[in-house]
Amino acid sequence: MMKLSDATVGVLKNFATINQNILIEEGKEIRSMSTMKNILASAGVPEEFPRDVGIYDLNEFLGVLSLAKDADIQFEDSHMLVKSGGTKIKYMYSDPSILTVPPKTFNAPEIDLNFEVKKDVLQNVLKAAAVMQLPDIVMQNGEITATDLKNTTSNNFSVELVGATEHRCHFKAENLKMLPGDYSVKVATAASVSQWIGEVASYWIAMEAMV
Fold first, then answer.
1. Rounded CA separation 137/88 (Å)
2. For strand 113-117 and strand 169-172, is the pairing parallel, antiparallel, or unpaired?
3. Residue 117: beta bridge partners?
4. Separation CA 121–CA 107 (nearest Å)
5. For the purposes of burial, counting CB atoms within 10 Å of the CB of 185, is it exposed (0-12), middle (13-18) or buried (19 or more)?
6. Among 167, 171, 119, 118, residue whose Cα is nearest residue 145
């Protein structure tokens, strides 16, 4: 029997925004990868999963958990039993072959740029991108900016950034799906990929070409 902590449920909710399916592997780490393979996320969790658990619709599974308050989860060979008081829910595992599963190993590219992005800065920029319908996030010259690089008359929203260099980093706002928090960002410019390291989870996110 195992209970899922609020922290683990929070990780699963966040990872559901990256990919609706997931293979939770045996152990104390949860990983997810987007279908486009441009986002790879991982988080250590308090619980230790006793076996691999394939879930085809993560949002549905989270909804199932909400049906059984403070539930105990029992892991059977083909399914989970979610139990709370007199309530019992049988939830079948999905075949891993139909899920998007991150690679077992990942050769990290050489990092040549480091900077910090604070929680309030990231939240404000992403909120502005959503409100102003700006698809691009650019980091350059000590600022992080929400903009539309394909529109020369685009509105912009900028905030000062700690430790940024003159090198330009371009992301799609829709790919910045991290849990709220402060992040240490490491960039491999030659490989056009970045690593966002937070207190709870870490994310590898592909960068976009500059327009």
1. 45
2. unpaired
3. 183
4. 30
5. buried
6. 171
DSSP state of 110: P
What are the DSSP E strand ranges found in the chain?
22-24, 27-33, 39-49, 53-55, 72-75, 79-84, 87-92, 113-117, 136-140, 143-147, 157-160, 169-172, 183-188, 193-197, 201-206
In the chain, the amino acid numbered 66 is S
Residue pLDDT, tens place only, 52-101: 999 999 999 999 999 998 899 999 999 999 999 889 999 999 999 999 99
Tokens of 54: 């394939």
- What residue type is 175 in one-letter code? N
Measured CA to CA, the distance from residue 161 to residue 192 in angstroms comes to: 20
Lowest mean pLDDT among 33-42, 44-53, 105-114, 162-171: 162-171
- Residue 35 DSSP code: T
CA nearest neighbour of 54 among 28, 26, 34, 35: 26
